[in-house]
């Protein structure tokens, strides 16, 4: 939310958000949908109160800034800009070409939304290449960098009891437990690692459809020192977890249907506390922040042995002082923050204004 706080300083801003009621008191004009959103395939049921508010807001706006085109709300919002002839800046990520029927339908909608936009605001050069590939004029694409909502390095940690063998070094995964996250390859790497070194813990924090299967795998294979925790913690607890971990891992993969990560923000969250990272080569725009000899190591996707080797190499580099939390935090401090993002979005808005 710091991004929108900064944006409100320059514009008469109206925000429409879903299921984020903790932001109610931060903004002058904010509408939080309190309805239960029922997903039915590609289409969602939009409550009439939400629809009427969207109509009024678009009709009375000068410029609309929309979120990703994978949500029915966003698609309806774009249709309303056509009806009321309003300019629209789309905050979007690039995507891989789909190979399933449903994904192709979504791809058609996605391309329509992108090409209907008067400007594109995106985070990372990787996404820009996707937009250019589908025919968006480069002059309409405005690129900034990712930046986390919270700098966990500056936040005082809220202590909790972490599972695992006392005194061991904690290897951390934090995020949604989905197939695209590649967690099974992390578990398999740890299975190989723990046979040689028993001074590591693997802590997997998060929820998702793959969690039960992965927990069953760990139990069935009797893999020692692997622990799971539920997700969704406040920032103080997350800060404590990051600061008390040894290495953070982001082992994402590309699925057979083309799905892959656009740029997981957890990479920068790890870095904000100086936590060294091992990431796969499928992290999109976030790969550039993982620098050998400074902030971590990159391994090939789906390479369990590669992850194991990277853990051992990074352990050696940490012990020898080649990589340290102080150096990583200093590196993170040089990454442009939300002020830079707002500056780029303002450029997109000014571009659209001139075209109007």
Explain what the structure shows.
The protein starts with a helix and ends with a helix. With 356 residues, the protein is α/β, with parallel strands linked by helices. Mean pLDDT is 89; it is low at 36-43. The protein contains twelve helices and 14 strands. The chain folds into two domains: 2-145 and 336-355, 3-Layer(aba) Sandwich (Rossmann fold), CATH 3.40.50.2000; 169-333, Rossmann fold (3-Layer(aba) Sandwich). It is globular, with a radius of gyration of 22 Å. Helices cover 39% and strands 16% of the residues. Strand 12 (247-250), helix 9 (266-272) and strand 13 (277-280) form a beta-alpha-beta unit.
The ordered string of helix (H) and strand (E) elements is: HEEEEHEHEHEHEEHEHEHEHEEHHH
Enter the CATH topology name of the largest domain.
Answer: Rossmann fold
Could you state the CATH homologous superfamily of the largest domain? Glycogen Phosphorylase B
- Name the strands of the widest sheet in spatial order: 11-10-9-12-13-14
| Whole-number mean pLDDT | 89
Number of strands: 14
Low-confidence stretches: 36-43
CATH architecture of the largest domain: 3-Layer(aba) Sandwich
* Secondary structure: helix percent: 25-40%
Principal-axes geometry comes out as: globular
Helical element count? Answer: 12
Structural class: alpha/beta
Rg, nearest Å: 22 Å
Whole-number tally of structural domains = 2
Largest sheet: 6 strands, parallel
